[in-house]
Amino acid sequence: MRLSRRYQFCASHRLHLDSLSGDENRELFGKCNNPYGHGHDYILHVSVAGEVDPETGRIVDRDVLDRIVREDVLPRIDHKDMNAAVPEFRDLNPTTENLAKVIGDWLCAAFRNRLPAGPRLSAIRLEETGRNTFDLSME
Amino acid sequence: MFLITRKAEFSASHRLARPDWSAEQNAAVFGLESQTHGHNYVLEVTVAGQVDPTHGMIMDLKELKDIINDEVVEPWDHRHLNHEAPPFDRIVPTAENLAAEIWRRLEPKISRDAAHLHSIRLYETPDLYVDFAGPGAVDDKEGR
């Protein structure tokens, strides 16, 4: 059984590689290379897998999952300029692929800390816009 | 193999509470969910199978709709699950337990030679959903 919960955050980013020239960056990333950046309303789905606890009928306590995401993950990126304000993106292009991996790392650490006995983080889905969706399996 | 998915909706009230626990115990474990409230549930039922060369279908979608209606929507829609929808007088009606009960009801009616119940997804709200691929299924062992 797998339970998924959906969260939202807003952040800005600019896709840019210091190793490329200005023209090459514009060629590769197009509008996403705009020097002042741009933003999205991201939607994050966090999926948790495990056995249903026979006593409570749940895989996971929703409050614990909410605290993991709302306290350990979202404050690092919500309403932030990710290139400037998120240390992980100092040397990493903040594409949504890389953002999903970074969020996955934060979630893994938070699960180890707050849910050491399980359940396990199964997958994350990150929607950058209504048209771009990224799925990352964590198993 | 094809997968086809049929969607259904039902609205029901429930409370997450064990009958054998005190109100305080239930409130401590289930929080606000221990009080009676309701949801607009959305159920997605996915059937896997081969396309029959004669009629070009995996299974008749009208039949699938009728099975879902008879087994889930009619008995649960606009009901208080704890009071009116056994086994939830004894079992806490979490999304997980609802999904397992839906599987138990649908699987024997749907699965046949040419098609079988592949998975179900139940949305309790747009922000919380469970996926279940049946007891003992390979997907279940993988936690799906």
Report what the structure shows:
The complex is a heterodimer of chains A (139) and B (144). Chain A has 139 residues and is an alpha+beta fold. Chain A has one domain (2-137): Tetrahydropterin Synthase, Chain A (2-Layer Sandwich), CATH 3.30.479. Chain A is built from four helices and five strands. Chain A has helices at 22-29, 62-77, 82-85, 96-114; strands spanning 2-13, 38-49, 80-81, 120-127, 133-137. A five-stranded mixed beta sheet of chain A has the order 3-1-2-4-5. In chain A, strand 4 and strand 5 (133-137) form a beta hairpin. In chain A, helix 2 (62-77) crosses helix 4 (96-114). In chain A, 30% of the residues are buried. Chain B is α+β, with helices and mostly antiparallel strands. Chain B has a single domain, classed as Tetrahydropterin Synthase, Chain A (2-Layer Sandwich). Chain B has a five-stranded mixed beta sheet. In chain B, helix 2 crosses helix 4. In chain B, 35% of the residues are buried. The model of chain B is unreliable at 137-144 (pLDDT under 50). The interface between A and B is medium-sized, with 22 and 26 residues.
